[in-house]
Amino acid sequence: MPDVQPHDPALVPTHTTAATSSVAHWVAQHHGIAVQQCHLIRRGLNDNYALRSSDGARYVARLYSIRPRGGFNIDFETSLLAHLDARGVGVAAPIPASDGRMHVPLQFPEGPRALVLFRHAAGAVPDTLDDIELTGHALARVHQAARDYAGPPSRYTLDGHHLAGRTLGYLQAHPELDAELLETYRALVLRLLGELAGAEAGLTRVVCHGDTHGFNNHVATDPDGTRTSVFFDFDDAGPGFLAYDLSVLPWSYMFRKSLKQPDELLRERWARYLHGYRAGGGEVSDGDLAALPLFLQFRHLWNLGEAAGRLHHWGTNAVPADWLQKQLEVFEAWGRLDLRA
Q: Is pTM beyond 0.85 here?
């Protein structure tokens, strides 16, 4: 057998999944926590690990992945979470390292990444109508408490360019898209940007969570019977439109169920979600509600762009050309929806 080279210079890594032992070592080294158990929750946009310390405390460690949109938004995210936590909002707040840093830079084979340790969010994803209403109530508290945030600014604004313009750039690099389909998506993006330009004067602006699809918050009941909702995964947060943050929940349901129209369950959930948001002090204008179909489409473009921007990591099977072709019918159907309640 020929000798194996210790390193092949032709090998260019695009994403490294760290072993759980590495994560446990880094948390012990930088946070001074004796880790008893560690397992990988999921890898993808970021790599998340569940940890349990020797005293039984639970944490989540996130290794931020290199993303096509640019640098990490960690300074904004962790400062916003600390601000919300200080206001009594239910969030999985970050835990500083022993030297006070909110994130630990790490050098991976593919480039610099970062480690952040968060408190564990007890409970489970919202399931019942009561859970959905509580989620809406909690989101309103996030938006209200973030109004006087004055920490480091976000690197990103959740505007038309961020939600759709970047996607068009990613699709241009797709090796299986023909010129006709790419031109159709270009026309779609330009049309939606035009609609947004005509509507944005009447839209409410907030600090968006950015990914409130129903799986980034847990509902728990404490020993006294009080039910609470805790939000986590704020790495897509930034200033943006209320209608966008509200649209992500119905988008998630229709996307997962492959629906072009809301079914009865979604309409029930949506009504309870809005009721909870308003009961929590959130104000939703008629303009915000009228813009929901527009932002459903923006969300769908952003989501497929997240996959299209990671062809080097996830491959073309994550966004095949025939699936992209079929989504044009989805955009058309969603543009005609009426989600006012």
A: yes
pLDDT at 3: 63
Assess whether 153 and 81 both reside in one domain: no
Could you tell me which residues are beta bridge partners of residue 221? 227
Closest CA to 49 of 30, 24, 68: 24
* Spatial distance between the Cα atoms of 92 and 234, rounded to a whole number of angstroms: 9
8 Å CB contact between 130 and 124: no
163 and 307 in a common domain: yes
Alpha helices in 123-227 (DSSP H): 129-145, 160, 166-172, 179-199
CB-based contacts of 47, cutoff 8 Å, min separation 6: 17, 18, 40, 62, 63, 65
Pairing of strands 205-208, 238-241: antiparallel
Residues 314 and 172 in one domain: yes
Nearest by Cα to 235 from 214, 212, 204, 260: 212
Q: Which of 85, 119, 153 is the last residue of a domain?
A: 119
Q: Are residues 92 and 147 in the same domain?
A: no
Give the integer Cα–Cα distance in Å for 102 and 45.
Answer: 20
Claim to verify: residue 93 and residue 204 sit in the same structural domain: no
Q: What does DSSP assign to residue 2?
A: P
Domain boundary among 89, 119, 149: 119
Number of domains in the chain: 2
CATH number at residue 252: 3.90.1200.10
Q: Is the pLDDT of residue 5 over 80?
A: no
Alpha-carbon distances, residue 144 vs 78, 216, 231, 240 (angstroms): 18, 19, 14, 14
The reply to whether 40 falls in a domain is yes
Note the pLDDT tens digit of each residue in 259-268: 999 999 999 9
Q: Using CA atoms in the order 128, 131, 136, 138, what is the torsion angle rounded to 10 degrees?
A: -170
